[in-house]
C-alpha cells in the first residue's frame, strides 16, 4: 500500500466521524423545532386580540390573561369563572391520579410475585388495553352508567334501590348528587368523572410502577417478617419507602396527562363543573372563535402543570434530605 492509499484510507475512515456531528445537530435541531415551535406559537397568539365578527390579529396585550383571572369587565366587575374551571381541572386530575396509583399499586405488587409466564400474560393484556382510545373507553362507561340501561337500572330491578331507601343511604346518595327522587344516578356527577378518568390512566399506572416493584429485593420483606413485622408493617416500613419516588413520579405523570382530558369531562361532568381544557376548545373551535383567549387559557394550564411539577420535585428533595 502506497502512502497516498494509506492517506485516502485514513480520510475515508475519518469522514463518517466528521459528518456524524452535523447529522446529529441537524436531527436535534429538527426535533427542537418540532417540539418548541407549537409552544412558542401558542404563547405569542395568547397576546393577540380578537376582532369582533372576524378572526383575530397579532398584538401584545394582556387583556386575555386579565379576562382569565378577573373577568373581561374588570375593574367594574370581577368574575372567577375561568379560575373555577382551572380549579376543577386540578381537582379532577389530582383525585383521579391518586386513585389510579393507589389501586394500581397493590395489583402491580401482587403481579410481580406471580410466575414469569403469568406476568407476561398480564402485561400483554394491559399493554393491549392502551390501544383503546379515550372516546372508546368513555362510550363504554357512558353505557355502563346510563340511567336507563346501566347500573341505575340494575339497582332498580334488583331491589337495591328499595334497600337503600329503607336503610337511609338513599338520602345520603341524594346529598352527594348520586340519586334523583326515584333512583340512583351517576350521570352527570363528579363520581362518574373521576371514576372514568382513573380507569383511563390505570394501565399507565401499572406500566409505570412495574419496573420499580419488580426490582424490589424479596429478601428485605423476608427479613422484616423474620423480625416479627406483620404485613401492614412490612408494607409501610419496607415496601412503600423503597418505591416512594416511583409512586410520586407516576402520580405526577398521570396528573399532567389528566389535566388535558376532554371527552370524559364533556360526557360526565356537569356544565358548571367543566374544566379549562373544555374552555380552550370552546374558545378555539366553538361559537366564539377566540383563538387568543383560548391560547391564553392553554398557557395558564401549562404553567400550572409546570408549577405543580416543580413543587413536587422540591418536596421530594426535601423529604430525601431529612
TrEMBL record:
<dbReference type="InterPro" id="IPR000515">
    <property type="entry name" value="MetI-like"/>
</dbReference>
<dbReference type="Pfam" id="PF00528">
    <property type="entry name" value="BPD_transp_1"/>
</dbReference>
<feature type="domain" description="ABC transmembrane type-1">
    <location>
        <begin position="86"/>
        <end position="312"/>
    </location>
</feature>
<feature type="transmembrane region" description="Helical">
    <location>
        <begin position="245"/>
        <end position="269"/>
    </location>
</feature>
<keyword id="KW-1003">Cell membrane</keyword>
<feature type="transmembrane region" description="Helical">
    <location>
        <begin position="295"/>
        <end position="316"/>
    </location>
</feature>
<protein>
    <submittedName>
        <fullName>Spermidine/putrescine transport system permease protein PotB</fullName>
    </submittedName>
</protein>
<comment type="similarity">
    <text>Belongs to the binding-protein-dependent transport system permease family. CysTW subfamily.</text>
</comment>
<keyword id="KW-0472">Membrane</keyword>
<feature type="transmembrane region" description="Helical">
    <location>
        <begin position="25"/>
        <end position="48"/>
    </location>
</feature>
<keyword id="KW-1133">Transmembrane helix</keyword>
<keyword id="KW-0812">Transmembrane</keyword>
<feature type="transmembrane region" description="Helical">
    <location>
        <begin position="191"/>
        <end position="210"/>
    </location>
</feature>
<dbReference type="InterPro" id="IPR035906">
    <property type="entry name" value="MetI-like_sf"/>
</dbReference>
<dbReference type="GO" id="GO:0005886">
    <property type="term" value="C:plasma membrane"/>
</dbReference>
<dbReference type="GO" id="GO:0055085">
    <property type="term" value="P:transmembrane transport"/>
</dbReference>
<feature type="transmembrane region" description="Helical">
    <location>
        <begin position="89"/>
        <end position="110"/>
    </location>
</feature>
<feature type="transmembrane region" description="Helical">
    <location>
        <begin position="122"/>
        <end position="144"/>
    </location>
</feature>
<keyword id="KW-0813">Transport</keyword>
Amino acid at each position: 500500500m502506497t502512502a497516498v492509499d494509506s492517506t485516502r484510507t485514513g480520510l475515508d475512515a475519518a469522514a463518517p466521524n466528521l459528518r456524524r456531528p452535523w447529522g446529529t445537530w441537524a436531527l436535534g435541531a429538527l426535533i427542537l423545532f418540532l417540539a418548541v415551535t407549537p409552544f412558542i406559537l401558542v404563547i405569542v397568539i395568547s397576546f393577540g386580540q380578537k376582532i369582533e365578527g372576524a378572526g383575530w390579529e397579532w398584538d401584545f396585550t394582556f387583556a386575555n390573561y386579565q379576562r382569565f383571572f378577573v373577568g373581561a369587565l374588570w375593574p367594574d366587575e370581577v368574575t372567577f369563572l375561568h379560575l373555577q374551571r382551572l380549579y376543577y381541572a386540578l381537582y379532577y386530575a389530582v383525585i383521579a391520579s391518586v386513585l389510579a396509583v393507589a389501586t394500581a399499586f397493590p395489583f402491580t405488587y401482587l403481579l410481580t410475585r406471580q410466575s414469569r409466564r403469568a406476568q407476561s400474560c398480564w402485561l400483554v393484556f394491559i399493554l393491549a388495553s392502551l390501544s383503546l382510545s379515550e372516546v372508546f373507553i368513555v362510550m363504554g362507561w357512558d353505557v355502563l352508567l346510563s340511567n336507563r340501561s346501566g347500573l341505575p337500572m340494575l339497582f332498580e330491578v334488583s331491589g337495591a334501590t328499595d334497600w337503600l331507601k329503607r336503610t337511609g343511604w338513599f338520602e345520603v346518595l341524594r346529598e352527594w348528587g348520586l340519586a334523583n327522587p326515584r333512583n340512583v344516578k351517576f350521570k352527570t356527577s363528579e363520581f362518574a368523572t373521576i371514576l372514568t378518568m382513573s380507569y383511563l390512566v390505570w394501565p399507565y399506572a401499572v406500566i409505570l410502577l412495574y419496573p420499580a416493584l419488580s426490582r424490589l429485593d424479596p429478601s428485605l420483606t423476608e427479613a422484616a417478617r423474620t423480625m416479627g413485622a406483620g404485613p401492614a408493617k412490612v408494607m409501610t416500613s419496607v415496601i412503600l419507602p423503597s418505591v416512594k419516588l416511583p409512586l410520586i413520579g407516576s402520580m405526577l405523570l398521570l396528573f399532567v396527562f389528566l389535566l388535558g382530558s376532554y371527552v370524559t369531562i364533556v360526557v360526565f361532568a356537569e356544565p358548571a363543573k367543566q374544566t379549562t381544557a373544555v374552555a380552550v376548545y370552546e374558545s378555539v373551535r366553538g361559537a366564539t372563535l377566540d383563538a387568543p383567549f383560548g391560547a391564553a387559557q392553554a398557557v395558564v394550564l401549562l404553567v400550572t402543570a409546570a408549577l405543580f411539577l416543580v413543587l413536587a420535585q422540591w418536596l421530594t428533595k426535601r423529604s430525601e434530605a431529612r
